[in-house]
Design brief:
Elements: H1 7-14, E1 19-21, E2 24-26, E3 33-37, E4 44-49, H2 53-68, H3 71-74, H4 77-93, H5 95-106, H6 110-131, E5 139-140, E6 152-160, E7 163-167, H7 173-187, E8 190-194, H8 201-213, E9 220-222, H9 227-236, E10 242-246, H10 249-261, E11 266-270, E12 276-279, H11 286-296, E13 308-312, H12 316-329, H13 348-364, E14 367-370, E15 385-388, H14 395-398, E16 405-411, H15 417-421, E17 429-433, H16 437-446, E18 451-454, E19 466-467, E20 473-474, E21 476-477, E22 487-495
Helix pairs in contact: 1-5, 2-9, 4-6, 4-7, 4-8, 5-6, 6-7, 11-12
The structure holds adenosine-5'-diphosphate.
């Protein structure tokens, strides 16, 4: 069974896609293109212009001009907000088309993209639209002890930070574009967006919708290309005021270096995770499905995946068996089959990375209760896997796998579980399953993670700040919190 391909999608993938710079579609300066494969088959899905340093430079010049001189900089916040809202509307109008494009390019089930990725992306623009008119400074009574008797009027202004480079990953391509573009546009910034080379298609379709919504030329530029070329050029560009990055901790560190070596541009980083999910003995039965969803959603390709499952000893066997049963029952297949529950990983590289971790787990003595290897011999599928008999120093326990692989360990000492859960260089998310409200909130306080879910997991909302402690990142996305990262604060002091 397969979803009937939307006509727009058919046309979109049939034509080589170009770069979107200054409101125009153009080939890369080098003339180069790259292919984006269908991860369910490994065959070419579409060809896309391959931007590099020269194209990034052109895009930054367009974004600078639009920021300094264009209609965007003269527009009222209300008009800006209306346009941002319209982007959300257009995304909703094209839900099926965008969900199909996302499924084909990324491998995720069409039905999941249709129910989650696309509506969440639209909601983010709708939420941010309202903030365009609510970015405010304060008036402050100042004392200035060394100027007795002087009288002042002092206030702060929050101003758009300027030209923003946005580098996004492949796991939620459209949604990550929305998380980045929504607040930047609400704040009045201009943007150069570089989608991941594995999944450039929905960002390019979004560029068309953004133009249709009335965003002036040069305000949003989309330049697909590789990380080491286009991404690195954006991170190092001296005329970019800020870079917002989502991806691996390894690349996050390269971006910090690039900013440090050039203009000290501001940075926000949303990086890796190895999130603990803790099931206490008194947890509701729903914890089993919750623990499975925490790791298997999006094939484990979530920075916040609940990849370390800790279960209080008396429930350990039951929870591990339950999660393993769910793993075995998941229907694996092409994302375009509406009955598929788990699609392929995004790329051949991810397939070999995840199966490499599985090999290392086995070699280190871990037991695969279920799964443990590649699924089939076509496309990039991996079996959902539950590993037990792990030790805290194993690679599968310490490193982010970014695939459908959970390590499960029992615990008995209630006093130590928070320290065990915090024993990671990451701090993005955490889950707690218990009926004891006091224990739940006490644990939530102890866990060093940017998001803590109690009796649920993977609950996201445009109004809820998201980001990481420790090496999971700098700054927060979403909520009004994110606007701090897209604005500069100016203090103005007038002597009266
Ligand atoms: P993953 O390992 O999951 O693919 P990455 O961190 O490599 O995650 O990629 C996330 C994004 O960062 C992608 O858009 C990618 O092209 C980009 N990227 C990769 N390397 C660099 C780099 N050296 N500089 C800037 N961006 C990069």
């Amino acid at each position: 069974m397969t979803v009937t391909l939307d006509r727009n999608v058919e046309e979109f993938i049939a034509t080589p896609r170009q770069l979107f710079i200054n409101g125009q579609w153009s080939d890369a300066a080098s003339g180069k293109t790259f292919e984006t494969p269908d991860p369910a088959t490994g065959e070419t899905l579409a060809r896309v212009a391959e931007g590099d340093a020269e194209d990034i430079n052109r895009a930054v010049t367009a974004a600078r001009k639009a920021f300094e001189e264009g209609p965007w900089s003269r527009m009222t916040p209300s008009d800006r907000g209306r346009i941002v809202w319209k982007i959300g509307d257009l995304i909703l109008e094209h839900t099926d088309e965008l969900a199909q494009l996302e499924s084909l390019d990324n491998g995720k089930p069409f039905v999941v993209a249709q129910a989650a990725d696309i509506p969440l992306a639209a909601d983010l623009f709708h939420y941010m639209a309202g903030w365009a008119t609510k970015i405010e400074g304060n008036s402050i009574d100042i004392s200035v002890p060394y100027m007795p008797g002087a009288n002042f009027h002092a206030y702060t202004r929050r101003e758009a930070i300027g030209v923003v480079g946005q580098i996004i990953p492949w796991n939620f391509p459209l949604l990550m574009a929305a998380w980045k573009l929504g607040p930047a546009l609400a704040a009045g910034c201009t943007v150069v967006l570089k989608p991941a080379e594995q999944t450039p298609l929905t960002a390019l379709r979004l560029a068309e919708l953004i133009a249709e919504a009335g965003v002036p030329d040069g305000v949003v530029n989309v330049v697909p290309g590789y990380g080491e070329t286009a991404g690195a050029a954006l991170a190092a560009h001296p005329d970019v005021d800020k870079v917002a990055f989502t991806g691996s901790t390894e690349v996050g560190k390269l971006i910090v270096q690039a900013a440090g070596a050039t203009n000290l541009k501001k940075l926000t980083l949303e990086l890796g995770g190895k999130s603990p999910n803790i099931v206490f003995a008194d947890a509701d039965a729903a914890a089993v499905e919750g623990a499975a969803n925490a790791i298997f959603f999006n094939h484990g390709q979530c920075c916040v995946a609940g990849s370390r499952l800790f279960v209080q000893q008396s429930r350990f066997d039951e929870v591990v068996d339950g999660v393993s049963e769910i793993a075995k029952s998941l229907k694996i297949g092409s994302g375009m089959d509406p009955t598929t529950q788990m699609g392929p990983l995004v790329s051949a590289e991810q397939l070999s990375r995840v199966t490499g971790f599985l090999e290392s787990g086995k070699a280190d003595g871990a037991t695969a209760v279920t799964g443990g290897g590649r699924f089939g011999d076509k496309g990039y599928f991996v079996e959902p896997t539950v590993l037990t008999n792990t030790t805290p120093d194993m690679k599968v326990v310490r490193e982010e796998i970014f695939g459908p692989v959970v390590v499960a360990a029992p615990f008995s000492d209630l006093g130590e579980i928070a320290a065990v859960a915090n024993d990671t260089e990451y701090g993005l998310g955490a889950g707690i399953w218990t009926r004891d409200i006091g224990k739940a909130h006490a644990m939530a306080k102890k866990l060093r993670a940017g998001t803590v879910w109690i009796n649920c997991y993977n609950v996201f909302d445009a109004s809820l700040p998201f980001g990481g402690y420790k090496q999971s990142g700098w700054g927060r996305e979403m909520g009004h919190e994110v606007l701090n990262n897209y604005t500069e604060v100016k203090s103005v002091v007038a002597q009266l």
